[in-house]
Each structure stands twice: as structure tokens, then as C-alpha cells.
Amino acid sequence: MAVSCSFLALSFFFFLFTLSPLPVSATDHIVGANRGWNPGINYTLWANNHTIYVGDYISFRYQKNQYNVFLVNQTGYDNCTLDSAVGNWSSGKDFILFNKSMRYYFICGNGQCNNGMKVSVFVHPLPSPPPSSSQHNHSSPNSAAPMVLEYLGHKFLMLSFVFVMFGYVLV
Ligand SMILES: *[C@@H]1O[C@H](CO)[C@@H](O)[C@H](O)[C@H]1NC(C)=O
Ligand SMILES: *[C@@H]1O[C@H](CO)[C@@H](O)[C@H](O)[C@H]1NC(C)=O
Ligand SMILES: *[C@@H]1O[C@H](CO)[C@@H](O)[C@H](O)[C@H]1NC(C)=O
Ligand SMILES: *[C@@H]1O[C@H](CO)[C@@H](O)[C@H](O)[C@H]1NC(C)=O
Ligand SMILES: *[C@@H]1O[C@H](CO)[C@@H](O)[C@H](O)[C@H]1NC(C)=O
Ligand SMILES: *[C@@H]1O[C@H](CO)[C@@H](O)[C@H](O)[C@H]1NC(C)=O
Ligand SMILES: *[C@@H]1O[C@H](CO)[C@@H](O)[C@H](O)[C@H]1NC(C)=O
């Protein structure tokens, strides 16, 4: 009994340890930021303020059943038409992963496209050497994050070991 509990606890911490770095590696760009996916917002302004790379996500947040999201081509985007749709989402919290560097066009399919519910994003290829932000020349902050997490992960692992051994002795 005690052994299987220790094993469970250990597995749990291993799980934490191995999974925690994942969410850091890809950025989730929330379309419209805190205003979400709604009519009357200029998404060109939002898109101009975001740099998106292959491997990043964008996510559309909206009232489910009220709006939706269609991936269309430029004609569909310009004219608010769905003939060119190659994908659609309607969960209210739709995550879209970009595998390829190109321009993507999304519109709302329920008539609100003409009220501004359209967004076009250019997805940049992954830069081979991480892009140095305009001011900073040396190591980017992005590359430091996983190392910190890994360090924390090791700490967690050690702590859980102590915890588990202690629990084992007590039982
Ligand atoms: C949104 O903003 C862009 C950039 O300022 C502008 O060119 C465009 O006309 C605006 N769109 C609408 C629908 O107001
Ligand atoms: C652009 O992004 C910055 C940082 O995320 C934010 O503070 C600013 O409000 C944004 N501006 C617009 C127009 O969305
Ligand atoms: C899109 O709209 C423009 C005018 O706004 C029109 O000239 C063009 O034929 C339309 N394209 C399609 C594919 O409907
Ligand atoms: C978009 O798709 C429609 C329908 O498939 C097609 O008629 C149109 O030429 C396409 N537009 C572009 C810019 O590829
Ligand atoms: C939405 O996508 C599904 C598949 O994911 C497809 O079966 C359906 O026809 C699409 N709906 C429209 C309106 O294009
Ligand atoms: C990215 O690739 C996955 C898996 O192949 C696919 O399901 C998804 O639709 C792709 N994303 C885009 C935006 O095409
Ligand atoms: C990076 O630093 C070097 C010298 O350390 C400098 O010559 C160069 O202009 C810097 N590059 C950028 C993009 O700041």
C-alpha cells in the first residue's frame, strides 16, 4: 500500500516535471486581447501589434453559439464570403496552431464579418538564431525560461523524493 502510494506521488511529480515546460515554448495570442472575438473591433490594429511565429497559437474567445470562426482565402476575407473556407471552429474558445509560414485569413461566418469580425495574420518562419529584440543583443529572455523551469522541476523532484521517503518511513 505504502509503496504504491509513493509510486503514485512520484509519478505525479514526474508528470509535473515533464509537462511543465510545454506551455512556455509556444505563445498563445488571444485575438482582440481582453475584448475577444466580437463585432466593432478593428482587428487590423490587434494584428499589427503581434508578431506570430510558426508553432504559435492564436485563440478566439467568444460567446459560444453566437459567433464562430472560418479560415478562408483573401477573397473570402475581402468580401466576407465562405466559399473558400478550409476550416471552421465554434467552441467559443478555439485554439489554432500555425504549422506553416504564410498569411492566414479568418472571418466570422454568421454575418458579423461586415461588422469587423475578420482578421488576417502573417505567420513568420522560425528564425534560426533567436531574434534579438531591437535593444537587447545577447541572450533572449525566451531561452532562459525553460532552464528556470527545468531547475524548478529538479527541485520539485528532490522535494517529492524527501516527502515520499518521509511518508514511507512514517507508515
Ligand atoms: C483599422 O485600422 C487600420 C489601421 O489603422 C485602418 O487602415 C483600417 O481602415 C481600419 N479598419 C476599419 C474597418 O476601420
Ligand atoms: C499593443 O501591445 C502592447 C503590449 O502587449 C499593449 O500594451 C498595447 O495596449 C497594445 N496596443 C494595441 C493598440 O493593441
Ligand atoms: C469581391 O468583391 C468585389 C467588390 O467588392 C468584387 O469586384 C469581386 O467580384 C468580389 N469577388 C468575389 C469572388 O465575389
Ligand atoms: C478563394 O477561393 C475562391 C473559391 O474557391 C476562389 O474563387 C478564389 O479565386 C480564391 N481567391 C484567392 C485569392 O485565392
Ligand atoms: C465545418 O467543418 C466541418 C469539419 O470540421 C465540416 O464538416 C463542415 O461542413 C464545416 N462547415 C461549414 C459551414 O463549412
Ligand atoms: C496544423 O497541423 C495540424 C496537424 O497536422 C492540423 O490539424 C492543423 O489544422 C494545422 N493548422 C493549420 C492552421 O492548418
Ligand atoms: C550587437 O552587439 C554588437 C557589439 O556587441 C554591435 O556591434 C551590434 O550593432 C549589436 N547589434 C544590434 C542589433 O544591436
UniProtKB/TrEMBL annotation:
Domain of life, per lineage: Eukaryota
All copies of domain Phytocyanin, residue ranges: 27-125
Transmembrane segments: 151-170
Name of this chain's protein: Phytocyanin domain-containing protein
Listed Pfam families: Cu_bind_like
PROSITE patterns: PHYTOCYANIN
Family matches, as PANTHER family: BLUE COPPER PROTEIN, OS09G0557900 PROTEIN
Gene Ontology terms for molecular function: electron transfer activity
Keywords, sorted A to Z: Disulfide bond, Glycoprotein, Membrane, Signal, Transmembrane, Transmembrane helix
Listed SUPFAM superfamilies: Cupredoxins
Described purpose of this protein according to its UniProt entry: May act as a carbohydrate transporter.
InterPro entries: Cupredoxin, Phytocyanin-like, Phytocyanin_dom
Span of the signal peptide: 1-26
Keyword Signal: yes
Family: Belongs to the early nodulin-like (ENODL) family.
